[in-house]
Design goal:
Blueprint (H helix, E strand, L loop, with lengths): L2 E6 L3 H12 L5 E3 L3 E6 L2 E7 L3 E6 L7 H15 L12
Length: 92
């Protein structure tokens, strides 16, 4: 299963870098200004920053609590985006 959210924001690069740095002390991460990947325990998180949006892709592992996974990602991004939070996640 793969879930994708296109999150409208002009600060996608900043948020993906902050989230990757935040979790880098606990999980394996790989990121630059445009793309980031986090080896999260519930499944990988992949992000791509665009000019007007941040695309977030999660791939929940079998047995993962999908709703909780989505909420953890959204809550953490909202913390970094406090000036424009809550961000809009249209999970597909």
């Amino acid at each position: 299963m793969t879930l994708t959210a296109h999150v409208p924001t002009k600060n996608g690069s900043r948020y993906l870098q902050q989230l990757c740095k935040h979790w880098s002390h606990k999980f394996e991460t790989d990121f630059d200004a445009r793309q980031g990947t986090i080896a999260f325990p519930m499944g990988p998180i992949r992000m791509t920053a665009e000019e007007e949006a941040l695309t977030v892709v999660i791939e929940p592992q079998d047995g993962a609590d999908v709703e909780r996974f989505k909420q953890v990602v959204a809550d953490h991004l909202d913390r970094f985006a406090f000036r424009e939070a809550p961000l809009s996640f249209d999970w597909q």
